[in-house]
Amino acid sequence: MTDRTLARRVAERFREVNGDHPMTAADDAYVTGQFVPLEALCASLGRDADEARRLMLEGLLPLPGYLRSDGAEMVPRDLFRLAEAAGSSERLRAWFTAHWEDREQGEAEWAAYLSGQYVCLHSVTPAHIRRKDELSAEIAGALETAPAEPSPEWRAALHARVDELDALEPAFTAYDRLRFGGPTSRDTCVDAARARFPNGSPAA
After folding, report:
1. Where among 93, 119, 145 does a domain terminate?
2. For residues 106 and 100, what is the distance between their CA atoms, to the nearest angstrom?
3. Which of 61, 124, 128, 144 is 20 to 30 A from 108, comparing alpha carbons?
4. Cα atoms in the Cβ-side hemisphere of radius 13 Å centred on 135
């Protein structure tokens, strides 16, 4: 039986991190298609959902990505993947942060990972996190310094980056724009880039 105290504490921590924003029916539908309830995932893997909640509260496993409007803790299907790659939840932090040469950056990324807010990636791994950051910075820089009349080569380079980022990121939902306080990286680096510089068209 679920320990309701643990579930309540996870929900409280989630709202501390994300704020208390309503989930619409459209948000629920999106999340249900992209994520899985913690209880269901643990049952399918023979894991204890309450133990997973304890690990979340101890800072050894990420918080849920979303709380559905019915209270379900929605997590990625590969929630335990990185802990398994590291050898255990206790070893995960050292394994994870070692992917960044800058120790402070590694710790900052670890904190972001634990927040559960890396819903911006289909699969959350250090390599994907680093590549997303690189692509987002490159695309933003290209848009900021775009020539008045971009060459075909410039457009091709931009769209190659945009397409790669597009493959890494899901669609997001309206709830994300509330908790992040503005547009998502898909809004600014994928959709906006394609709208401003459509393939084969002059610059907007």
Report:
1. 119
2. 5
3. 144
4. 26
